[in-house]
Amino acid sequence: MSKLVVISNRVAVPKARGVAGAQGGLAGALNSALKEHRGIWFGWSGEECDEYTGSINIQRNDGVTTATMDLPKQDVDEYYNGYANSTLWPLFHYRIDLTEYEREFGKGYERVNERFAESAAPLIEPDDMVWVHDYHLLPLGERLRARGLDNRIGFFLHIPWPPTRLFVSLPFHERLVETMLHYDVLGFQTGEWLESFLHYCRKELGATVDEATGRVEYQGRVTYAKAYPIGIDFDHLTAQGKTEEAKIAGEKLLSSTRDRIAAIGVDRLDYSKGLPERIDGLARFFDQNPDRVRDLVYIQIAPPSREDVESYQKIRNELEQKTGQINGARSEVDIVPIRYVNRGHSLAELCGFYRTAKICLVTPLRDGMNLVAKEYIAAQDPDDPGVLVLSRFAGAAQQMQEAVLVNPHSPDDLSHAIKTALDMPLKERKRRYDALIKTVRDDNVQDWTKNFADDLAMLGKN
Ligand code: ADQ
């Protein structure tokens, strides 16, 4: 019987939900997928070793088999902190100004992808389906093919695909995309990123592209590219929202905000999430509505991430400074307008916070999808739902048009959206919630997995 082999940079076991959350949406989504399919999840352990040995550590946890390998420090510096997080991540989030084009990073990236292929190949049997995840492993499919694997191999990109004009600034961009065309199925979060990818294939590679079906033919191989918007594990989240832990967290927030409305933001501390811009928007709101400092308290939950990368240290400092400035200018003895919490929380606690907060600000400058937007809606009380303020530039905005949509670069737009949310009558809150909950509940992570796996099974053998 064939099995599913999932390969991603990191592996997170189901129990470590708090940790998984801090690592990003990928972990939470895959836990559900792996429980459903008899499968193996392979990736880097997160540990550094003195020398690469190729040995892997296999564990069985809660119905999921995980296999991990350690990487030497040079690999972590060049592949993970380097090419993945200092080159591809900023470039794919349209931040060409932050993108570092170091030759050594590229070499490390190729070397580690080869190590992934070498260690994963023995785990893969002839009929298995292989599902590779995210920007760390774009060339892995080609590396596995070079080892003689003709399995169905699919790839899903969790982050945006940039417009061709930005992408061509990457040295060896053709080579990178050529390696991707060794996958059978390529998944993107939204039609927008898919369109950019197909445009690149046609314009820069001269591939034969059928936009209607996503069929890309290049050098005798066929790949199908399609959009699969990721969702949340709705049932799991709803269950977490009913726990005692969620109740206590919600009550704690409520009692500490007293008669003020709580607005919340929950983001990894990342420049793509538009955090300083959000604080500017709040400052503008308080400037334009000085009498409302007593109405609103904003809670920003932002666990640090990728702290070895310089641009992440900068964003942390910038956020701390901005929060300090606005609190310095606006606080009263009994009032602090912004609370900044620099750590992770369990999903149950987050659910409690989401339900208590009457406004959620999800305002990334660019985001593949953004699961916080969906989690917030899922956690609401249907009889008294809160308001989601959502960036137009998050992938989630394509499915969530009934949110209050904003341009996160504009402090005036943000200020206006906050005011709209604060003053929104119950009837309109309910109307918007009823539309939003539908997509959050129906287009969930189980569907996402099934859609991708079904397509891989069906389209993969070409
Ligand atoms: P991320 O950039 O990490 O994921 P997102 O989709 O918002 O972004 O997922 C974050 C996850 O981390 C959420 O599930 C959230 O609950 C959790 N989280 C955030 N702060 C937390 C905290 N303080 N404590 C605990 N958990 C916390 C990438 C892409 C996204 C895409 C996902 C999934 O960048 O665009 O939506 O993958 O594909």
UniProtKB/TrEMBL annotation:
Pfam families for the chain: Glyco_transf_20 (PF00982)
InterPro entries associated with the record: Glyco_trans_20 (IPR001830)
One Gene Ontology term from the biological process aspect of the record: trehalose biosynthetic process
GO MF term (any one): alpha,alpha-trehalose-phosphate synthase (UDP-forming) activity
UniProt xrefs under Gene3D superfamilies: Glycogen Phosphorylase B
Family (UniProt): Belongs to the glycosyltransferase 20 family.
PANTHER family: BCDNA.GH08860, TREHALOSE-6-PHOSPHATE SYNTHASE
Name of this protein: Trehalose-6-phosphate synthase
Gene source species: Pontixanthobacter aestiaquae
